[in-house]
Amino acid sequence: EVQLVESGGGLVQPGRSLRLSCAASGFTFDDYAMHWVRQAPGKGLEWVSGISWNRGSIGYADSVKGRFAISRDNAKNSLYLQMNSLRGEDTALYYCAKALSAKSSIAGLPGYWGHGTLVTVSS
Amino acid sequence: QSVLTQPPSASGTPGQRVTISCSGSRSNIGNNYIYWYQQLPGTAPKLLIYRNNQRPSGVPDRFSGSKSDTSASLAISGLRSEDEADYYCAAWDDSLSGRMVFGGGTKLTVL
């Protein structure tokens, strides 16, 4: 059974940093592109970043480019999101999501989502 | 403002057929597959339709998807109370350096 478990969220002041983690199990992690997608309270879904199975392609939403960095450790079956210079508008539930198809680029959309970790940016 | 355009709300009575539209452009729906996600209240999104009209195992055949040029639609037939949820369309967008784009979501109410 596919499992994606996010962690690392919490309350952080504007301008500070936070690192999110996603522990994956139940599938061959290094075969799949992975994504971070966020959802602000009461709002819709917004793609944040994606990384291909072999790290050959990485992409970011314009709203986080230059502030966030996605990475993966295939040996640890883990996905990460380093978030710097956080702003109030970054407040959201952050979902880790697995691409539907194996060996896809970051253009491969999610087939499975974790339950999310909440990030609140406030002074 | 979402890149893909969906109606904010839709409704129907049990047993009815409802459709939810999703409008985009050449760089997203026109050139790439459309995906649909269902988000029940308080839960994570769940894949409902992939590659325009394919259903993952476990998704009832009451749900169907279609795509034409730069628009897509999700149809739900035999509406049930448990279908009350938010529905999102999504696609890859080839413009700029590439990005995943979503519709703003449609809240489906079963009357």
Helical content band of chain B: under 10%
Radius of gyration of chain A: 13 Å
Largest interface: A-B, 22 and 27 residues
Q: Note the overall shape of chain A.
A: globular
Distance between the amino and carboxyl termini of chain A: 40 Å
> What characteristic shape of chain B results from the CA principal axes?
globular
The separation of the N and C termini of chain B measures 28 Å
> Helical segment tally of chain A?
0
Order of helices and strands of chain B: EEHEEEEEEE
Radius of gyration of chain B over alpha carbons? Answer: 13 Å
- Assembly state: heterodimer
Question: Average pLDDT value of chain B?
Answer: 97
Helix content of chain A: under 10%
Put simply, the count of helices of chain B is: 1
**Helix/sheet category of chain A:** mainly beta
Hey, roughly how much beta strand do the residues of chain A contain? over 45%
Low-confidence stretches of chain B: none
Number-wise, the strands of chain A total: 11
Category from helices, strands and their pairing of chain B:
mainly beta
How would you describe what is shown here?
The complex is a heterodimer of chains A (123) and B (111). Chain A is mostly beta strands and 123 residues long. In chain A, the strands form 2 sheets. In chain A, strands 2, 4, 5, 6, 9, 10 and 11 form a 7-stranded mixed sheet that branches. A 4-stranded antiparallel sheet of chain A has the order 1-3-8-7, with no helix packed on it. The radius of gyration of chain A is 13 Å and the shape is globular. The mean pLDDT of chain A is 96. Chain B is mainly beta and 111 residues long. Chain B contains 1 helix and 9 strands. In chain B, strand 3 and strand 4 form a beta hairpin. The longest helix of chain B is centred in the N-terminal third of the chain and has 5 residues. The N and C termini of chain B lie far apart (28 Å). The mean pLDDT of chain B is 97. Classes of the chains: A mainly beta (123), B mainly beta (111). At the A-B interface, strand 5 and strand 10 of A face strand 7 and strand 8 of B.
